[in-house]
Design brief:
180 residues, mainly alpha
Length: 180
């Protein structure tokens, strides 16, 4: 099950990166066809990841109960990783609701993008960053990466650039909506 989870993490990373870049370019008003397939593939991988991680967490809780030793304080990073992942589900749903467009006038148009939507999208980016940055070490261990520190720095840099690009796109898009 853990091997399946790491493959899901890789799928999430690839589809998320492509979706974030394509979506940001669209919000920057580039004439790009944002592929809904990327968004749905990422969402499917995230859904499976949530299921697998939930099963693994339940197994951990059962093992903890059987052993009689929880060591909660010693496992705070484990719980931070789990809680941050589940916390991402709320802004994920709100992100989907924000960017579901309508096609009623014949031209694709997104729903209103005001202050609340901007704040929620920036919060979404921050939560993604926290979740990814706290999980990069365990993910690299699962992949068998030996030089974890150097590779983690490279991955964090790439993810940071993608997230900054997306956050900037949300801000530019908000300013364009405010000008309407």
């Amino acid at each position: 099950m853990r091997k399946l989870n790491i493959f899901l993490v890789i799928a999430i990373f690839v589809t998320f990166a492509a979706h974030a870049v394509a979506g940001a370019l669209k919000l920057y008003d580039a004439d790009i066809q944002s592929l809904p397939v990327l968004a749905f593939a990422c969402l499917g991988a995230v859904g499976l990841h949530v299921i697998v991680t939930s099963v693994l967490t339940i197994q951990t809780l059962i093992a903890r109960k059987r052993s009689g030793a929880g060591y909660f304080r010693d496992n705070l990073m484990f719980w931070a990783r789990r809680i941050s992942g589940f916390a991402l589900l709320i802004p994920l749903v709100l992100h989907i609701l924000t960017f579901i467009g309508n096609n009623s006038s014949g031209a694709f148009r997104l729903n209103e993008f005001g202050n609340a939507q901007l704040i929620l999208q920036i919060l979404f980016v921050i939560l993604i960053a926290f979740h990814v940055f706290t999980n990069i070490g365990p993910a690299l261990i699962s992949l068998g990466v030996r030089n974890k520190k150097a590779f983690a720095a490279d991955m964090i840099f790439v993810i940071s650039v993608i997230l900054l690009f997306a956050a900037g796109a949300f801000c530019i898009y908000y300013l364009r909506w405010a000008a309407l």
